[in-house]
């Protein structure tokens, strides 16, 4: 790992900011999602209901406490922090001509604070924070007009933060919805504001959404380059190795296909064209996408500068032909060689090396680990501290495999950002009790607590790891 390696963490606006009624913010789609419980999905509402807890409304109050939080990240020696911009703070409804200055001011304050501490801001433009108005009035990403609204928002950000922000991420995990697979309500909602069970003509709609988001990303890359050729633009994918259940070639092929479904958008963004195999796959099921001729040039000129990789777990594909094709991340088969987190996610450090190799050999582009971490329940010990040895163990093992990928396999990995360096709201469950942080936040699932920040044991460990550039992490 060389000196420029970007050590740090990742957070997202809807999971930490809170303050939904401040700064003229509009309603974002995650503002309407309630808290869930263990194994229980979050409820999705169309309007606010009295007596329900919507975790994004408080978040962890980052909106008011960002200075304190950034100072703690700086104390750990962070070189980078990935934040997301809540689109509904900049364009409260999404279709306005002019941006909301108060929203821009807030993010300028955050970015300035980061720069003041020598922390590189890495800015995600879409981390599930679409203005709900674009869903209700325009039908979300299935409407090509929404791509234009997104580009207006991107252009506003590129211009306003020109020379302050160099690293941009167009989207977080658009790959979780694919026309060929079933999805949960929460996953299609998180990404597009639509419940899977309520989508009409599912395959066609998801194909259109997938295409529109992909072209939106490529057009945003074009824009970022035009505004400043020094910009480095990536897109973040949530991908996992999918292992076959055994070495029966049919099952191996099945696992390959399941894993490959997560890659068509990366292919489009790295190879300079929307993949022909995907268009033919759609044609075979009677779907013909309307493709604007100018899109081809956009794909060609809009290839990524880096790939962002969110890695938590690997999964095992079911037997060929089996009904349940869900991955271990969201139910499905468990790997007998691996332990799982309390939420059932398989803990697989070697998987991160596998995926880094796989992706780097496929595209040859720099890769940034944009999320990795362990969601766990932390107990405050009698001495008042949190001794999270399990988190240190998880991260240590993963960083060791990243090191091997860089040093032994020659993968160009440019950074490692942990998910949730400070405890924040879980995206899938809305819980606070699913904690990832080096910094504890005193807030429970009911939204009660002082919001006080406290360093956990992992805080000092990560600080040391950054200081030594991971020389302290050995076999
Ligand atoms: C990633 C998302 O998929 O997983 C984050 O980008 C999310 O927003 C993270 O928080 C962990 O998932 P969860 O449900 O444990 O918060």
Describe this entry's structure for a reader.
The protein has 475 residues and is α/β, with parallel strands linked by helices. The protein has helices at residues 13-16, 62-75, 87-90, 101-116, 132-136, 144-160, 185-192, 202-227, 249-260, 264-271, 276-284, 295-301, 349-363, 389-407, 457-467, and strands spanning 6-10, 80-84, 120-124, 167-172, 232-238, 242-243, 306-310, 315-316, 367-371, 413-419, 439-441, 453-455. It has a single domain (6-467), classed as Alpha-Beta Barrel (TIM Barrel), CATH 3.20.20. An 8-stranded parallel barrel has the order 1-2-3-4-5-7-9-10, surrounded by 4 helices. The longest helix is centred in the middle third of the chain and has 26 residues, at 202-227. The protein starts with 5 loop residues before the first strand and ends in an 8-residue tail after the last helix. The mean pLDDT is 94. The structure holds 6-O-phosphono-beta-D-glucopyranose. 6-O-phosphono-beta-D-glucopyranose binds at residues 12, 15, 172-173, 238, 310, 371, 375, 419, 426-429, 434.
How would you describe the shape? globular
The sequence of SSEs as H and E is EHHEHHEHHEHHEEHHHHEEHEHEEEH
Count of alpha/pi helices: 15
Provide the CATH superfamily.
Glycosidases
CATH class: Alpha Beta
End-to-end Cα distance, whole Å, is 16 Å
Identify low-pLDDT runs: none
Identify the strand order in the major beta sheet.
Answer: 1-2-3-4-5-7-9-10
Query: Helical amount among residues, as a percent range?
Result: 25-40%
CATH topology: TIM Barrel
> What ligands does this structure carry?
6-O-phosphono-beta-D-glucopyranose
- Biggest β-sheet strands, sense, barrel: 8 strands, parallel, barrel
- Radius of gyration equals 21 Å
Strand element count = 12
What count of domains describes the coordinates? 1
**Any idea what the CATH architecture is?**
Alpha-Beta Barrel
Q: Strand pairing plus helix content: what structural class?
A: alpha/beta
In round numbers, the mean pLDDT is 94
